[in-house]
Amino acid sequence: MVRAVFPGTFDPIHYGHMDIARRASRLFDEVIVAVYNKPLKNSLFSPEDRLELTRQTFANDAKIVVTGYSGLTVKFCQEVNAQVIVRGLRVFSDFEYEFRMALANHHLEADVEVVALITSEEHTFISSTTVREVASLGGDVSFMVPPLVADALYARFRELGNDQQIVPLTSLRD
C-alpha cells in the first residue's frame, strides 16, 4: 500500500487544496491530509477549527484521511508509514520554494519521496491568503471554497470585527 501525506496549514482549505488531494487519491492508496497545528504565521482559524473544516470537506472521500500534526513533515510521514509527500504547484514561484523543501526533506529522510502536482488551471489564482483577504472585505468567496468554509470565514470575521489584525489587507481594497 502506498500512503501519501498532503501537508499544509489549510487556513482555510480551498478548492485548490481539494483538487490536489482528490487527484492524489487517484494515484495513491491513501492520502492523509495533514493539518499542521503550529504554523509560524498568525492563523485565522484555530488548529481545531482548521482540522474540523478539513475533515468535513473530505467526509465523503473514502481514500482521504484528515489528521493534525506538528513537527517535521518527514518525521510525521515515518510515524504514519507514508512513502510520499504530495505538494501542489500553482505558479512558477511555487516551484522554487517546493524544490528547496524537497531537497531538504530528502536530506532528512531519503525514503520519503516528494510528488508535486500542478494545480488545475481554474484554481491557479486561489491561495488561502487571497481567500482570507476577500472574505475579510465581505467579498464573495463561494467560487474559492466550499459553502461550509465560506460560512465559517464570514462568521470568523464578524467575530473579529473591523479592527481585526490577522489578515493584512494588501491590494484588493484599493
UniProtKB/TrEMBL annotation:
Homohexamer. One of its GO terms (molecular function) is pantetheine-phosphate adenylyltransferase activity. The record marks H17 as: Transition state stabilizer. This is Phosphopantetheine adenylyltransferase. Its EC number is 2.7.7.3. ATP binds at T9, F10, H17, G88, L89, R90, E98, H123, T124, F125, I126, S127, S128, T129. Residues 5-133 form the Cytidyltransferase-like domain. PANTHER family: PHOSPHOPANTETHEINE ADENYLYLTRANSFERASE (PTHR21342). Keywords: ATP-binding, Coenzyme A biosynthesis, Cytoplasm, Magnesium, Nucleotide-binding, Nucleotidyltransferase, Transferase. Pfam families: CTP_transf_like (PF01467). Its cofactor is Mg(2+). Pathway: Cofactor biosynthesis; coenzyme A biosynthesis; CoA from (R)-pantothenate: step 4/5. It comes from the Bacteria. Belongs to the bacterial CoaD family. It catalyses: (R)-4'-phosphopantetheine + ATP + H(+) = 3'-dephospho-CoA + diphosphate. One of its GO terms (biological process) is coenzyme A biosynthetic process. HAMAP family: PPAT_bact (MF_00151). Substrate binds at T9, K41, T73, R87. Reversibly transfers an adenylyl group from ATP to 4'-phosphopantetheine, yielding dephospho-CoA (dPCoA) and pyrophosphate. GO terms for cellular component: cytoplasm. InterPro entries: Cyt_trans-like (IPR004821), PPAT (IPR001980), Rossmann-like_a/b/a_fold (IPR014729). It is an enzyme of class 2 (transferase). It is found in: Cytoplasm.
